[in-house]
Amino acid sequence: MANWIRAKSIDFLKYGRLAMLTACVIILSGSVLVYIKRSSIFGMDFTGGFSLHLELQKNPEGNYLQNVENALLLAGAHPQDFQVRELTPSNHLRILFGTGMELAEKPFFQMPRENDHQTNPRADWVVAALSSQEMFLTTHSLENMEANWTSMSGQISDSMRNNALLGLLLACLCIFIYLAFRFEYKFATASILCVIHDVLITVAAIGILHAVGVPVQIDLNTVAAIMTIVGYSLNDTIIIFDRIREEMKFSENRSLSSMINHALNATLSRTTITSGTTLLVLVALVVFGGASIFSFALVMSIGVFLGTLSSWYIASPLMLFFHHQETPHPHFSHKPEKR
Hints:
Distance between the termini: 50 Å
Number of domains: 2
Largest sheet: 4 strands, antiparallel
Helix content: 55-70%
CATH class of the largest domain: Mainly Alpha
Number of helices: 13
């Protein structure tokens, strides 16, 4: 099974520069789109928003959460702009609205926080959206609507963002320290740069997909997916680098370029089968998993695919580059140079 992929003479290093150039174009274009769409691409975990607690009148059918979601969608809300959470008992719900609801062509656009009657027009919009689908609030919930409407602090969102970035930086630092001891400096540096590439190109891909209308946002689920991608991609890279190191020990008379290509071809079948089977599961989650895990599964799929390619076309050429910085000669040799 490990030898299903039998191509043994692919010149991976030949396409290294093209791969890096393509990656740079994707990262730059995606980063620009993330910046342009920053008001809508970041989820409520990072932007803050509004929260409404309500109690629906009981009905024999139940299924309150799904019915509320459908009512809000029919009223013009976008799936990315709200979350409905079921409490106990099941007719008690909490609806979270992101600041994306305030953008142009969205339900809260230019809607004031209060009207002349000292009521909240946004809460009134929710009541009207539910009433249009024959879902009515209890008298107690209507009387306490103002008290049940709260704003989610932007400071909390800033803290989430900072903690996410700190976690990613600490992960990269620990990876670099481990690889510096496990391998050599050139392996560790190439691995870290490859990890950074995987993070940046995944975020850029999110920006591109968001710009063309795919319902994906950057939130804590996306951060979790990116952290998982870092570990997955690094695993492929370490396996390839370990094979390269073995080639360097036992093939002293060959150039390092040929050793790298041989190591990449030798691990090609294993890497392809592992990534392929993982992608099959992730694609199934994207198609059939529903809205709650769509972003996570989609980001994971993109990251696994691009991370596999980067292990072949980014990490290894970078390692060769750093080797040439240490040794200006194009051929690798364990023996010290005679003077």
